[in-house]
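ping. complex inputs:
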Amino acid sequence: MYRSLFPRDVFAEMDRLQREMQQALDLSPTIRGVARNGFPAINVGGTPQTVEIYVFAPGVDPATLEVQLERGLLTIAGERKSPLAEVEADAKVTAHIHERFDGRFRRVLTLPDDADPEAVEARLRDGVLHITVQRRASAQPRRIAIH
Amino acid sequence: MRNDVQTTSRSSSAARQPGTPAGGPARYSDATLTPPVDVLEDAGGITLYADLPGVSREQLNLQVESDTLTIEAEANLSVPPELTSSHTEVGLARFRRVFTLSKELDTERVSAELAQGVLKLRIPKAQHAQPRRIQVQVA
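pong. complex structure:
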């Protein structure tokens, strides 16, 4: 989604291509696949206590945004209107460049087993939806004392 | 009226580019994402929409120089310090895109809005360049 025809930095572009090739040859692909280059882009990471998900969805009307967590499956769905929707019916407008996604979208992620569906927080700021899912306390690593 | 927003400050934040060594070669620190844009033209001027997720007004730098428009921005995500990434689709926090503006656009009257991570730029056409209907005389 953020590719350009003439990459400014050939080395960074080649590294990215190499990373994508490696992912393509992934030996244990999940059944739901690894969605790439969809809208919105998603970054997933974790800390020992939480799973952090960043959804890059600028310009999405918060009223249409739905985040659902069901049995370990996180669904992010919504709709983004095209800028042409704001234009009056009889205005003569030419669209010279149209690279931004518009329409309805839905992305689904599988969360790890220790994600607690009761403790999810989602915050939308500057077009980035930041979802924090707490890990179950019982699943935290515990040190066992040796007597 | 030129619309100057403050320059982005190059603070040495630790979580800048995941996976690159600290103090690596200059080419990595110059890498930026190219934001997707929509450009619409009507009789009065050009409207540009750019996706800049995570960018707030202070981190946006717009520059108009003679016939070049430069959009530079830095995203600010609230990242917990001990985060390890498992799936990264957006690997950089900096955006940059440059456009060449044609002569009939009035660069003095550029206006910009930034809301929900979407930049909306309005570049009106110069008065003399507005479409004018030419009367056809029938001999």
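Residues 9 and 129 of chain B are 38 Å apart (CA to CA).
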